[in-house]
Amino acid sequence: MFINLKGIFLKSFIDLAKDVFQIEASAVLVLKDKLDCDYIKSIDEIIATKGKVIISGMGKSGIIGKKIAATLASTGTPSFFMHPGEAYHGDLGMVTSDDIFIAISNSGETEEVVKLIPFLKDNNNFIIAMTGNPKSTLALAANTHLDVGVEEEACPLQLAPTASTTATLAMGDALAVTLMKARDFRPEHFARFHPGGSLGRRLLSRVENEMFTKNLPFISSSSLLLDVIGVMTTSGLGIAIVNDIENYGIVTDGDIRRLIKTHQSEVFKMNVSEFVTKNPLSVNVGTRVEDALILMENKGVGVLLIKKNDEVVGVFKK
C-alpha cells in the first residue's frame, strides 16, 4: 500500500516504518559518543548508596521512567517510580537523604519535575538528570547529567516523543546492565526477583516442592509384569519402584515396551527381579530443581527418585 496525497503516490507503509527504525536506531547509536565522566559518577553513586533509586518524569518520560525503574529493581538495584505531581503533594515523604533521584525530562524544563529540585537539594539527594538539553534548568541543577538528546524525532511533525523516548529507554538499560556487571549479578540473583518464571523455578525451587508423593508406585521384586502395569496405571507416573531390594529398583514403561518386543508373550511369566534396574538415579530432599534437571539431562532420564534418610519419599519428573 502507498499513501496517496492529491494524486501523488508517496512512500509505502513499509518504507515509512523503515524510516522510523533508522531514525530511532541512529538516535541510540549517537548516545555512545555522549557518555562522559558524569555517567561513571552516576554509576559510582548508585553503587555506593544505602538508599534506593527513585525515578521521576511526566507524560511519556514518566512511562519510560517506570520501565527503567522496573528494570533496575529486577536486576539488583532497589528502585521505584515516583510521579512528580504526587511527589509535590506528599509522596516526597518517601524520599530519604540516602536515595538517588533520577529526573527525566527531554526539555529539562518540565515544571512538575523542576520544582522538585529545591526539596531534593535541601534533602541532600544526589540528582541525576536525564535530558536532551545540557543547558536546561534540570541539567544544570543536577549533580550529573546524562545527555539523551536526539537530532530529530521519528514523528514527521516533530511533536510526539519517539526517538527521544527510545534514547532515554536505552540509557536506562545501559545503567541497569552496567550496574549488573559491576555487582556481578548472576542468574540465581535474577531468579530471586522472578520466582514465578521458569528460571526462578529452576534456581529457587527444591525437588520436594514439585515431587509427586501420592500413590507412589511401590512393588515387590517377586511381582509379575501385569502387577507392574497395574501399579503404573494407578500412579500415572510411568514407573514402578521396587522397594524390597537394596537401594531400591525401578521399572519404566520404556522397559516394558522393550521387554515385550524382545520376549513376546513369555514376558508375562517373568517376575520383576528379572528385569528391574537396580540402584536407580536419585537425589535427596533439598536438591535444587536446577541441579536435578541438569542431572536428568546429562543421564538422559525422565524421572528421579527423591530420598530422605535413604527412604524414597517422592518422584520428580521433568
Low-pLDDT residue spans = none
Mean pLDDT over the full residue set: 88
What structural class should be given to the helix and strand makeup? alpha/beta
Helix content: 40-55%
What does this entry look like structurally?
The structure is a single chain. The chain has 318 residues and is an alpha/beta fold. The protein has two domains: 23-185, Glucose-6-phosphate isomerase like protein, domain 1 (Rossmann fold), CATH 3.40.50; 206-317, CBS-domain. 43% of the residues lie in helices and 19% in strands. The chain contains 14 helices and 14 strands. The strands form four sheets. It has a five-stranded parallel beta sheet. Strands 8-9-10-11 form a four-stranded mixed beta sheet. Helix 1 packs across helix 8 (163-182). The two termini are 49 Å apart. The mean pLDDT is 88.
Short synopsis of the structure:
With 318 residues, this protein is α/β, with parallel strands linked by helices. It is built from 14 helices and 14 strands. Helices cover 43% and strands 19% of the residues.
Key attributes of the depicted protein:
318 residues; alpha/beta; Rossmann fold; CBS-domain; 2 domains; five-stranded parallel β-sheet; four-stranded mixed β-sheet; 14 helices; 14 strands
